[in-house]
Amino acid sequence: MLRTALIGTGALALVGATGLISYNAGANNTAAITVAQPEMEMDMDEAMAMMMQAAAPGEHHAKLTANAGEWTSRSKFEMGPGQTSEGDGKLTVKPIIGERFTLGHYTGDFAGAPFEGISITGYDNVKKEYVSVWLDNFGTAILYMTGNWEGDALVLAGKTSTVMGDHEMKISSVQPNANSMTDTFYEMRDGEWAKSGQIVYTRGADHGESHDEKGGHDKDGHDHGG
Amino acid sequence: MIRHAITASVLVGALGGALALSFSAGRATAPANAALASQPEGMPGPEEIKAMMAQTAAMAPEHDRLKELVGLWNAKMNFLVAPGAPPETSQVKAEIKPVLGGRYVQLHYKGIFTYMGAEIDFEGLGMIGYDKAAGHYISAWGDNLSTSMLIETGPYKDGAIDIEGSMTDAMGGQTTMRHRHIINDDGSYTLEFYQPGPTGEMMKIGWIEHTKD
């Protein structure tokens, strides 16, 4: 049914996946396709298998989707030399597109203003790295970050445009147990990473409620070999 | 085992987009005039920070175009699968909605389309915005035909939001993609897609005709 071609060109191009393998417009459209990168021909089934494998969610995606649900957060950010801003927020994480990505929706207040942001996060099986975008109502850019595990921390870095030029950011995320996680934010200053803030997340929809939950023993039940 | 996770890059934008500016702004003067930078007067005050934040968050006329994409659409897919032959067509649904105060639109496509006779169960989600600081439209897209993400940027040109980028292909290389988002006079919306053809030049490989549901 799905046999001949995912491959295709078009559809995926619609949006993206297509690049994978593009057909040779001049060729017999059922017999063979030409793989764009190396100059070689593959039969349809082989190409399909390769594409399906590349498109399948795996253990890295499972790590992302394990965070599905509602979280409350407490943030503390540096606003300027000697100034910090603290705020409460909520994060909802939803698996999307067949558990290949998660869609994060954050609401809260920041520096006295209502703050809302959206993230899409996944893992690129071919590049073998995590990929993530972030956008929010405090700006009009899209921040694109990539990265991987560094010990216990998932570290993503990327840059976003600002009126003062590109701004490099890095986020190190650790999760000591299934109900809490901490993101530490860094920005590039004078060629070095400087910590700019931190957000601590606790699983649960309401501030306070999550701290009263039974089953807190889980929180100490893991040895994460730091 | 599955205890690590990415937390969404929450508040990145706040830092990346606006607030970090306040810090950077204070430091920006340092290389030029260290003495000035060390003085509190060299740093932006709360009012200045507020003004910068408002400026960064404000929408531009270019965001108005995104509104035209909003709606529940019948999306007729057209693929050019053989030279000289009529396009292969099929129908999926698209929901495009404004998010984050209209600074971006979120696109969600779902349905079964036909490609070279095969039925493909498809779902994809993306965002399109206009980055004022960079001065271009920007898009992020993911779908169930790969695990890669496509980031595209580009201008409004010849009646289209004309964006291009590259994404990982299954062979480990990068493939260039170009998408033209066209709002037609009758309110319908056409999305054209291009990829490198046999000679390496960008070639139109298909399009989607969106009509209101």
Q: What can you see in these coordinates?
A:
The complex is a heterodimer of chains A (226) and B (213). By secondary structure, chain A is mostly beta strands. Helix content of chain A is 13%, strand content 51%. The longest helix of chain A has 12 residues, at 44-55. The relative contact order of chain A is 0.11. Chain B contains four helices and eleven strands. Helix content of chain B is 17%, strand content 47%. In chain B, a hairpin with a 6-residue loop joins strand 5 (136-143) and strand 6 (150-154). Chain B is of the alpha+beta class. A ten-stranded antiparallel beta barrel of chain B has the order 1-2-3-4-5-6-8-9-10-11. Classes of the chains: A mainly beta (226), B alpha+beta (213).
Brief account:
Chain A has 226 residues and is mainly beta. Chain A has 4 helices and 12 strands, in the order αββααββββββββββα.
Please give the domain count of chain B.
Answer: 2
CATH level-4 homologous superfamily of the largest domain in chain A? Calycin beta-barrel core domain
> What's the number of extended β-strand segments of chain B?
11
The outline of chain A comes out as: globular
Which CATH top level class of the largest domain in chain A fits? Mainly Beta
